[in-house]
Amino acid sequence: MKATHLYLLLQVFLSASVLVHTFDPFTTVLAVGVGATLGRTIYKYLHESCDPKWIAFDATGLQVDLGNKLFGQHIASRIILQAVNEFMTNDNPKKPLVLSLHGLSGTGKNFVSQLIADNIYKEGMDSSFVHIFNSIIHFSHSSLLDTYKSQLQQWIKGNISNCAQSMFIFDEMDKMHPGLIDSIKPYLDYYHKLDGVSYRKAIFIFLSNAGGEIIAQKALDFWKAGRDREEIKLEDLEKLLSLAAFNKNSGLSHSSLIDNNLVDVFVPFLPLEYRHVVQCVMAEMKARGLRPDHGVADRLAKDFIYFPESERVFSSKGCKTIERKLKFYL
């Protein structure tokens, strides 16, 4: 069985390498020279198997991580835990899990993807069963849209053939060429199998800034009304997010994924306040093995840019630059 899967993996990489001269960005991910990286991937594949030893969902771990490491996101924490838990504990899902995470930069979308991977795969984001695509890097040339579609289909089919419980993360969806993501629509639909391959146990996560302004405005409205942000509910935002994603000239623009209700949930990430930035700094110090210092966290957080300019309510970059800036405040 392992030999068969290795053969399929080689076929995916080698077929992708044929087009290296045509467009570098995506084939760099698919084959990356078909040299050292291919060898490294095969080595990794031979030492990581698609079985419970390497793939085992830790529901408690995800709950703890979302509760202790993700700040200011009461809606996202609850919805993601519920969605992932229900999917991973279902032995016979009807379709893949499809999550669309929306919010301004630095609010935790990529971080949540990492937490999900960490609590499913033993190797976390380094697992050979976790695949990350960045629209700016991997799908940059609009003239190659048809080629991207073909290779994306091939990549997903090949990897799910190797491991049904694969995860695919699409970052910068708001910058993806419209129509590209629709090429994988059959894989996200309610099919038992397609050409002998079942996609029903895979996870697809879309990360997008689309709708971030809508989310921020809703949070600001609550703040101005003196209402607690924890009062904001999913139903206050989900429909607005789906419409924003559908109407914006981006990856999900007029997408059949939305038309056919194949996105399981549109998850809003709220803009972060000063107190959340402080929490992020304290968590970063702890992660580095340092003693959390509230004075350091306070100074760093105060130097962030906040909006609206007059009220300084929300961090314009969320917690995104903390890792890079912290060393200057120690």
UniProtKB/TrEMBL annotation:
Name of this protein: Torsin
GO terms for MF: ATP binding; ATP hydrolysis activity; kinesin binding
GO terms classed as biological process: nuclear membrane organization; protein localization to nucleus
Signal peptide start-end: 1-22
- List locations, semicolon-separated: Endoplasmic reticulum lumen
Q: Which gene encodes it?
A: LOC115017170
Top-level taxon in the UniProt lineage: Eukaryota
Organism annotation: Cottoperca gobio
What InterPro entries would the database entry show? P-loop_NTPase, TOR1A_C, Torsin, Torsin_1/2
| GO terms for cellular component | endoplasmic reticulum lumen; nuclear envelope
Keyword Mitochondrion listed? no
Does the UniProt entry include the keyword Endoplasmic reticulum? yes
